[in-house]
């Protein structure tokens, strides 16, 4: 079965007539009509209810339309994947919140110039959730905190930057160490269950600091705003856009590593290569 014939039938369904479908496909009405007649013979079903100036899918065609659309979509994906040197089609990229603002805008601008046929679909989320999505191939790649375990076969990390731990206190607070800050301020914790938050929790544990925890959040932007309001202090990585943070004694040894996680399979290799190159060229890498 020729998928181009399915495309012609779908064009008639979508445009409402053979004439309109022919115009959309740059074909003659006779050619579109012939394609549909071939499909009807192959499937043994009448696919169109033909009227004077319009055509509508038959009952049999309506039942088959979802499968037809899937077949056409898969055929397009196969054709795009076969050309490993052209970055086109849809590339599904996940990103943690700080990289949505720090990395994604520059990548989008670069891709618009270098690969106008490539559509980037962005999915926000936590590092662990985005990691799982790349593992299950729901995402092609993700901008995440490096996982705290070895990457399994089939996945690849592209290093972007490292962010040492910083002390974040209200502007009028004199503390310069974590001990001094948490002596009289509660901790607005970078969620210790998150991969980045585990680094801050380890810093406190290594020094035997047990602050009163006001709340735990995974959003660094929100943590920064809460500290600025004066209700607590925090330990956060030196993420792009962070303001007012202080160097933390020993903080350089507690770094959040940001990576682009991809699969090592050749699927959409041109798009993957282009996105890795784009991230490096926009100077996200150390």
UniProtKB/TrEMBL annotation:
<comment type="similarity">
    <text>Belongs to the LysR transcriptional regulatory family.</text>
</comment>
<feature type="domain" description="HTH lysR-type">
    <location>
        <begin position="1"/>
        <end position="58"/>
    </location>
</feature>
<dbReference type="InterPro" id="IPR050950">
    <property type="entry name" value="HTH-type_LysR_regulators"/>
</dbReference>
<keyword id="KW-0804">Transcription</keyword>
<keyword id="KW-0238">DNA-binding</keyword>
<dbReference type="InterPro" id="IPR000847">
    <property type="entry name" value="LysR_HTH_N"/>
</dbReference>
<dbReference type="GO" id="GO:0003677">
    <property type="term" value="F:DNA binding"/>
</dbReference>
<dbReference type="InterPro" id="IPR036390">
    <property type="entry name" value="WH_DNA-bd_sf"/>
</dbReference>
<keyword id="KW-0805">Transcription regulation</keyword>
<dbReference type="InterPro" id="IPR036388">
    <property type="entry name" value="WH-like_DNA-bd_sf"/>
</dbReference>
<dbReference type="GO" id="GO:0003700">
    <property type="term" value="F:DNA-binding transcription factor activity"/>
</dbReference>
<dbReference type="Pfam" id="PF00126">
    <property type="entry name" value="HTH_1"/>
</dbReference>
<dbReference type="Pfam" id="PF03466">
    <property type="entry name" value="LysR_substrate"/>
</dbReference>
<dbReference type="InterPro" id="IPR005119">
    <property type="entry name" value="LysR_subst-bd"/>
</dbReference>
<dbReference type="GO" id="GO:0005829">
    <property type="term" value="C:cytosol"/>
</dbReference>
<protein>
    <submittedName>
        <fullName>DNA-binding transcriptional regulator, LysR family</fullName>
    </submittedName>
</protein>
């Amino acid at each position: 079965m020729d998928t181009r014939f399915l495309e012609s039938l779908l064009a008639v369904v979508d445009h409402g007539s053979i004439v309109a479908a022919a115009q959309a496909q740059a074909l003659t009405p006779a050619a579109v009509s012939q394609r549909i007649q071939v499909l009807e013979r192959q499937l043994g079903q009448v696919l169109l209810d033909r009227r004077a100036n319009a055509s509508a899918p038959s009952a049999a065609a309506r039942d088959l339309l979802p499968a037809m659309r899937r077949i056409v979509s898969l055929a397009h994906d196969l054709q795009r994947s076969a050309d490993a040197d052209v970055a086109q089609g849809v590339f599904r990229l996940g990103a943690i919140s700080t990289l949505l603002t720090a990395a994604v805008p520059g990548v989008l601008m670069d891709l618009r110039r270098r690969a106008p046929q490539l559509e980037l679909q962005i999915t926000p989320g936590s590092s662990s959730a985005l990691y799982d999505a790349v593992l299950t191939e729901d995402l092609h790649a993700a901008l995440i905190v490096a996982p705290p375990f070895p990457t399994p076969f089939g996945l690849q990390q592209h290093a972007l930057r490292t962010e040492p731990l910083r002390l974040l206190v209200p502007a009028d607070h004199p503390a310069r160490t974590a001990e001094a800050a948490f002596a009289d301020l509660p901790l607005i914790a970078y969620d210790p269950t998150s991969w980045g938050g585990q680094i801050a929790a380890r810093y406190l544990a290594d020094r035997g600091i047990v602050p009163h925890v006001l709340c735990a959040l995974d959003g660094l932007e929100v943590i920064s705003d809460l500290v600025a309001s004066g209700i607590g202090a925090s330990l956060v990585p030196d993420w792009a856009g962070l303001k007012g943070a202080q160097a933390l004694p020993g903080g350089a040894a507690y770094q959040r590593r940001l990576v682009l996680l991809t699969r090592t399979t050749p699927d959409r290799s041109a798009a993957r290569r282009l996105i890795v190159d784009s991230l490096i060229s926009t100077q996200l890498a150390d």
